[in-house]
Amino acid sequence: ADAPVRASLDDLPIRDDLRGLRPYGAPQLDVPVRLNTNENSHPVPEPVVEAIGKALAAELRDLNRYPDRDAVALRADLAGYLGHGLTVEHLWAANGSNEIQQQLLQAFGGPGRTALGFTPAYSMHPLLALGTGTGWQPARRGADFGLTVDDAVAQVREQRPDVVFLCSPNNPTGTALDPEVVAAVLDVAPGMVVVDEAYAEFARPGTVSALAVLPGHPRLVVTRTMSKAFGFAGGRLGYLAADPAVVAAVQLVRLPYHLSALTQAAARAALAHRDALLGTVASIKAQRDRIVTTLREWGMRVADSDANFVLFEVGGEQSVAWQALLDRGVLVRDVGLAGWLRVTAGTASETDAFLAALAETR
Ligand code: PMP
């Protein structure tokens, strides 16, 4: 008998707006130096491994039961970490800040509505819009990838989006936003304003988190993650801080029991050991500054960075430079920005390897 013909996506009655698309994702290649997804390169310290192991073990007997649907204890811990007078009511958690932002679009975007972002910014924002049927409105950043109050306000006024995404520090450019931009956008935006602060813990002194702007602004949402500074990317824990009404809104669209008992327990154990986990932040920032300084000494254009990565100009076709680095065992990110590449700041020896490979290719 003939083998059954394997169906392709095109054979399925898939949504028209998904037809012909490819799934998002950076290449996961097995190379010695992986600096392409802004992870924390430092492994989880042994005492924290043990603490998380114990916390998980304590949950196992009860895995016959559903977890706390509202993740109350975890949200209280997250509020304690953030400070700013925030409580459990202001916090919400999900499987990564990607899921948080998806829930925000499910609640405040959706068919017939729009979301706006200032590109280049985090490439998942338009993809989350697509997946939730939200129209996407790309807006521009200025020279050197900056975003001024006037530029931001003019574009929000013109497009009147239901959701505005701001990203601070911005991925892939690295620079934190002036809080005046957040305040000005809030003033003119007709809908929600989401500030994606995935990299907040790496900011240079003098930068201000939008958390400080939350009081009295129920249309403002700040999203954070444990994937970067906490080195907990594999644990999948993102969260938001906002007015309690926003938390009530996302509870309308979240799947019941979306956060497993194991995720909640592991994240709480990690938070309890935050000093050990966040202990790597200072050295990562030092590596970031070393990359910025060294590349500028070499005469290259480099964006200022408040994050754990650096955007640099390669001079020429960036995909060629990307491959040349990969050929030398160093994986960086081609974010599709003509002439530029992004490298994650990790350990000192990863910086050594990256700089040596880059020097060879110049
Ligand atoms: N926001 C930004 C700006 C990011 O760069 C990332 C990770 N690449 C995320 C959100 C999502 O991270 P996670 O879902 O792991 O929290």
UniProtKB/TrEMBL annotation:
Pathway: Amino-acid biosynthesis; L-histidine biosynthesis; L-histidine from 5-phospho-alpha-D-ribose 1-diphosphate: step 7/9. It comes from Micromonospora pallida. Coiled coil: none annotated. One of its GO terms (molecular function) is pyridoxal phosphate binding. Its cofactor is pyridoxal 5'-phosphate. InterPro entries: Aminotrans_II_pyridoxalP_BS, Aminotransferase_I/II_large, HisP_aminotrans, PyrdxlP-dep_Trfase, PyrdxlP-dep_Trfase_major, PyrdxlP-dep_Trfase_small. One of its GO terms (biological process) is L-histidine biosynthetic process. It catalyses: L-histidinol phosphate + 2-oxoglutarate = 3-(imidazol-4-yl)-2-oxopropyl phosphate + L-glutamate. It comes from the Bacteria. It is an enzyme of class 2 (transferase). NCBIfam families: hisC, PRK03317.1. Homodimer. PANTHER family: HISTIDINOL-PHOSPHATE AMINOTRANSFERASE (PTHR42885:SF2), HISTIDINOL-PHOSPHATE AMINOTRANSFERASE-RELATED (PTHR42885). The keyword Zinc does not apply. Belongs to the class-II pyridoxal-phosphate-dependent aminotransferase family. Histidinol-phosphate aminotransferase subfamily. This is Histidinol-phosphate aminotransferase. Keywords: Amino-acid biosynthesis, Aminotransferase, Histidine biosynthesis, Pyridoxal phosphate, Transferase. Residues 33-358 form the Aminotransferase class I/classII large domain. Pfam families: Aminotran_1_2. Its EC number is 2.6.1.9. The modification N6-(pyridoxal phosphate)lysine is found at residue 228.
